[in-house]
Every structure is written in C-alpha cells, then in structure tokens.
Amino acid sequence: MTTQARDAPQFYLTAPTPCPYLPDRVERKVFTHLIGRRAPELNNALSQSGFRRSQTIAYRPACDGCKACVSIRVPVDEVRLSRTMRKVLAHNADLVGHWKDNVPTNEQYSLFRYYLDSRHADGGMSDMNVLDYAMMIEDSHVDTHLVEYRKRGPDSGLTGTGTGDLLALALTDVLEDGLSMVYSFYDVDQTSRSLGTLMILDHFIRARKMGLPYVYLGYWVDGSPKMAYKGRFRPQEHLSMDGWTRVD
Fold it and tell me: Which residues of the chain have pLDDT under 70?
C-alpha cells in the first residue's frame, strides 16, 4: 500500500490567472509532476487525456465555466496537404531538420530570445533567461528530442545535419502513439518560408517514418488568433467528454 501511494500521481489546481488567449477571462490548470521511473508511462497516459508537458510538469486547463481549450492531434496517414502547404514544403526543400538529443546551446537561446522579443514580448515567457531556457530544454524525465532546422549542405544526405545558421527549432516528445510538439520557435525574419508550418509538416513526415499514428499539437482555442493556424491541418481529432472525435 505504501509503494502504491508513493507511485500514484498527485494532482494540484492553480490559482486563477488572466487567460492568455481570450480577453476578460481567467484560467486555472490542474497539474502533476512527471518525475521518476514512471514518468514516460504517465506522460503517455496523460497526453492521450489532453495534458501537455512543460519540463517536469503535466498540465491541462481546468477553468470554471469555460471549455474553449480543445486538445487536438492529427492522424498523419490521413493528413491532406493544401496547395499552400505543398508550396511551403517546396520552398523549404533547401532546409534539413536534424533530430538530436535535448541539449541546449547558446545559439538556440539567441534565436529563442529574438523570437520572443519579436513575437511575444508581452507573453508569459518574455523574461526567460539562458538558465530558464536550458531548463525548458533538458529538464525532462521522458523521451524528449530537438529538431534543428538549417540549410542543406553537401553532406546532409549522409549526416542528416544542415549547415549555417539555426533557422528553427522544435522541442518534441516521443509518445507511444505519436510525436508531441512541446514548443517551437524560428527566425521571424524568414517570413516567406512559413517556418512554423514547415515544422508541423515535417513532424507529420517524421511520425509516419517512425510508425507513429499521430502528431499532438496541443490546444486549439476557438476565437483566439494565436491558435487559428492549428485549424488548417485536417483531418484532426478533438478531445471531448466522449473521447477523441474526428473533425474534417
């Protein structure tokens, strides 16, 4: 009994804070710790139940009177590429994504800092320093990797690595049924490349190659411009009280 009680996850509820997605609303989250030998197993179960990971915390919204945040995942074998998505892939054929261990670097932080200052200067992550960034990347008890995107070099076909400056990066968890995109950022000056879309499309390809059926994209919030881009990837599945439901 003592061992079972110690291994069982304990859940907590945050205090109300202003909602980052919808005006004049507040948010609360239920969360638990992802630590120890059972962390990968727990992360799998919670991800399938609509939780997201941030370092060693798994959380999901638990807001009073609001169900706007919807967990979504995309079945990669069925995804339909729009004309715009095909153009994004073609335009970025000169880039290569390198799958690597979750080890932070100064180059990554410089790009991360530039991305925040340019796009999310008033966001909750705006004051993150280099140590905070390092913790975000490496503080994980589950199967976590990075994908670094750079220009394709002469040896990229053999090494899988690119050359030149880092243009984009994705922090990704490997689940038993898919890839979960925890966080991503990119060079905001490369607007014509649509690097955010590229990283999602690339993860569809990676998941298929790994034999994984889904890519988890986190939460979609109806009415939030910040989340509107996620609705473009179809078909997708939304999590409701009845389980995962297909949306075409």
Answer: 1-7
